[in-house]
Amino acid sequence: MKNLGPWWIRLPLLFFIIFGLTEFFIDSGDKPAFLDQPIVALFLGFIILLLVGIELILASIENVMFQTLSEEAKERYLASKEQGFEWAWGKRMYKKLLGSKPIEAEGEIILDHNYDGIRELDNKLPPWWVYMFYATIIFGVVYLVRFHIFNDYDQDTEYLTEMTLAEAEIEEYKKNAKDLVDVNTVELLTDASDIAAGKAVFETNCVACHMADGGGGIGPNLTDQNWILGGDIKSVFNTISEGGRDGKGMIAWKQSLKPVEMAQVASYVLNFQGTTPANPKAPEGDIIVNPHMDVEGAPAVDSAMIEVEVDTLEFIKTIDEEGTVIE
Ligand code: HEC
């Protein structure tokens, strides 16, 4: 039989070729195919079983054929198997790294003493171990010089570098993932470029009913604090995406605008807050202070919340000092 290399090279090689083919031909997005589609994992498991089965069958066929040979032919066959180049080299290397004496030569290194019949060989340290030991010494010297003498970098800098890298990656991801935004994840956009894009969308699609300055016409005034359908970014996004109440004239824009465009125009609409339009339409709906900013455009501070907390603290203190509740 022609020699195709040892089974422990043949089997993994075949398996990885098949594995590579599945990854190449099955479209599974970013994930490897065998994670994305369990059936592929099942298939690969089956392939392993199959390959092992084939190897076992081949081995037994070889064995049966070997037994039918004459003694002389058996010897020739074994000799031909020994010959492979990689084998000779690999075996020599292995023996060298092991550094042990063959059993016949053990007499040379046996020590004199005899512990109740147990005798000791004076083996040299195995070369593979010694070389590894030298390697750690070289590593240690390089490490010492680099980090303790030249102070190349320390853990803090390493941490910071990795964090900066990660942040850059997140930014990059967010830039590409803008269209993934929906009513649950939308946030007020503040980048000038986003606001400008929102303005463009507004001027193309919305001015007919809301006026260029947001003062309102067919649609309600967008500059006041009164909102029919809610004035936080999520509500505004939702109104634009799903439309207003039936029959009022505000259509759902999700068919004609991309998610990112709706987020941009929603952020632009919220920028109207507190401006004075030329012909303001009378307020409609409830007053809802925009939680994203107060009228001047500064971030809103929830002062009611702070007062409540202070009151609670004082209340607890009075009880503690006097032991009883006074007020
Ligand atoms: C055909 C006229 C028309 C167009 C065009 C229009 N709207 Fe409206 N819009 C309305 C009307 C009418 C309402 C009130 C809906 C209601 O009462 O349910 C409204 C409501 C709104 C509201 C909610 C206001 C509130 O008080 O809750 C927002 C925000 C809004 N529009 C933004 C937009 C944006 C952004 C565009 C462009 C993409 C747009 N509209 C295009 C007519 C229009």
TrEMBL record:
Keywords: Heme, Iron, Membrane, Metal-binding, Transmembrane, Transmembrane helix. The chain crosses the membrane at residues 6-26, 38-61, 128-145. GO terms for molecular function: electron transfer activity; heme binding; metal ion binding. This is C-type cytochrome. PANTHER family: CBB3-TYPE CYTOCHROME C OXIDASE SUBUNIT FIXP. The keyword Heme applies. Residues 193-273 form the Cytochrome c domain.
